[in-house]
UniProtKB/TrEMBL annotation:
It comes from Octadecabacter arcticus 238. One of its GO terms (cellular component) is ATP-binding cassette (ABC) transporter complex. GO terms for biological process: quaternary ammonium group transport. This is ABC transporter ATP-binding protein. Residues 12-243 form the ABC transporter domain. SMART domains: AAA. PROSITE patterns: ABC_TRANSPORTER_1, ABC_TRANSPORTER_2. InterPro entries: AAA+_ATPase, ABC_SmlMolc_Importer, ABC_transporter-like_ATP-bd, ABC_transporter-like_CS, ABC_transpr_FbpC, Mo/tungstate-bd_C_term_dom, P-loop_NTPase, Transp-assoc_OB_typ2. Keywords: ATP-binding, Cell inner membrane, Cell membrane, Ion transport, Iron, Iron transport, Membrane, Nucleotide-binding, Translocase, Transport. It comes from the Bacteria. The keyword Cell wall biogenesis/degradation does not apply. GO terms for molecular function: ABC-type ferric iron transporter activity; ATP binding; ATP hydrolysis activity.
Length: 364
């Protein structure tokens, strides 16, 4: 069954997928589409339904409702169903387990059919691409974790899958190695034009890997967009807080304004009496020195400064994390360049940049 043959056709499309366990909808009406060569990250906290979504696309799990399409052709719906082995889909999961009795070449060749010379060519090409051609005759137990992961990637790519499903594939690696392998993996997948759906609970990984992030919570996609947009225009306080620490200033609206110790914030179109949260990331708080008990003058861009006393300051390498107690007893965190590490008890003035804060109705 073919729905559309447009060149702008998604390589993978899922429509209104639903899956329940014990009466609880763990995947609740999830839809998304991925173009060839595009990497989409399904990002969300543990248990939000990411892996179940991936397993339904792979065909390992059956959906209760919804449909899956590849290149405009139906893969499965309530009636029709292509079995897992018939889906042109590569899988790379955290427990990637290479076959221990097969060499690197044997592992990559596994799943390839055709003339031996052609197979050998493809194996060599892929091992070169993942930087493992020197290890072609080794066995898995002779390789480091990172090397095994590269071989697993080559193995998953060998049959030229149109779609690659990856579930936390880098989580067993240490930080530096993980960064390298992520970047290399991305390069290989882009070069192959594969549509990638990568599951992760790490916002940093999603921001680094994704062309598009689908932010998932309680079985639903709550926001979808490019990393820059998701980070800079979160749909709600929880979405903002998923990517970094946040500071929250509670306020009430009167006459389209929310008054706080940081001055007034414009909240047009919000009814009087509405409780709102003004949210600012620690790296966007502006800090200035105390001038004999006074702070800098108020401005339209930064509002009114509020006085804070340093409670704790930690050197973090490129940045310092400074925790403040404000005069009203509330706490705030700021991330500042590490050339500056104020001592406990130092008085400083904090400002909220109006172009960097988010204002959300307070959730119950
Ligand atoms: N076969 C199953 N039977 C019953 N419940 C299940 C089954 N598979 C998953 N669940 C439940 O469904 C929910 C979603 O699980 P899923 O593995 O999709 O989440 P996740 O977002 O991938 O989490 P994690 O990041 O921890 O892997 C969880 O509450 C999980 O316990």
């Amino acid at each position: 069954m073919v729905s559309d043959t447009s060149p702008l056709q998604p390589r993978l499309e899922i429509r209104n997928l639903v899956r329940s366990f014990g009466g609880l909808r763990v995947v609740d009406d999830v839809s998304l589409s991925i173009m060839p060569g595009q990497v989409t990250c399904l990002l969300g906290p543990s248990g939000c339904g990411k892996s179940t979504t991936l397993r339904m696309i792979a065909g390992i799990e059956k959906q209760d409702a919804g449909s899956i399409w590849a290149d405009g052709a139906l893969v499965c719906d309530g009636v029709f169903r292509v079995p897992p082995e018939g889906r042109a889909t590569g899988l790379m999961f955290q427990d990637f387990a290479l076959f221990p009795h097969l060499s690197v070449a044997g592992n990559v060749a596994y799943g390839l059919s055709g003339r031996a010379s052609k197979t050998r060519g493809r194996v060599q090409e892929l091992l070169e691409r993942v930087g493992m051609s020197a290890h072609i005759d080794r066995y898995p137990h002779e390789l480091s974790g990172g090397e095994q992961q590269r071989v697993a990637l080559a193995r998953a790519l060998a049959p030229r899958p149109k779609i690659m499903l990856m579930d936390e594939p880098f989580s067993g690696l240490d930080d530096r190695l993980r960064d390298d392998i992520r970047d290399e993996t991305l390069e290989v997948l882009k070069a192959e034009g594969t549509a990638v759906l990568l599951v992760t609970h790490e916002p940093g990984e999603a921001m680094r890997m994704a062309d598009e992030i689908a932010l998932m919570r309680d079985g639903k996609i709550v926001q979808m967009g490019a990393p820059y947009n998701i980070y800079n225009t979160p749909v709600d306080k929880e979405a903002a807080g998923f990517f970094s620490d946040i500071n929250t200033v509670p306020a009430h609206v009167h006459g389209a304004l929310a008054a706080t110790q940081f001055g007034q914030f414009l909240v047009p179109g919000v009814a009087d009496g509405t409780a709102v949260d003004i949210v600012i990331r620690p790296q966007h708080l502006k800090i200035d020195f105390d001038r004999a008990g006074k702070g800098p003058n108020a401005t339209i861009a930064d509002g009114t400064p509020a006085r804070g006393t340093v409670k704790r300051a930690r050197f973090m390498g490129i940045e310092s994390l400074v925790e403040f107690t404000l005069d009203d007893g509330s706490q705030m965190k700021a991330v500042i360049p590490s050339v500056f590490l104020p001592k406990k008890g130092t008085v400083l003035w904090l400002m909220i940049r109006r172009d960097k804060c988010f204002i959300f109705p307070r959730s119950a």
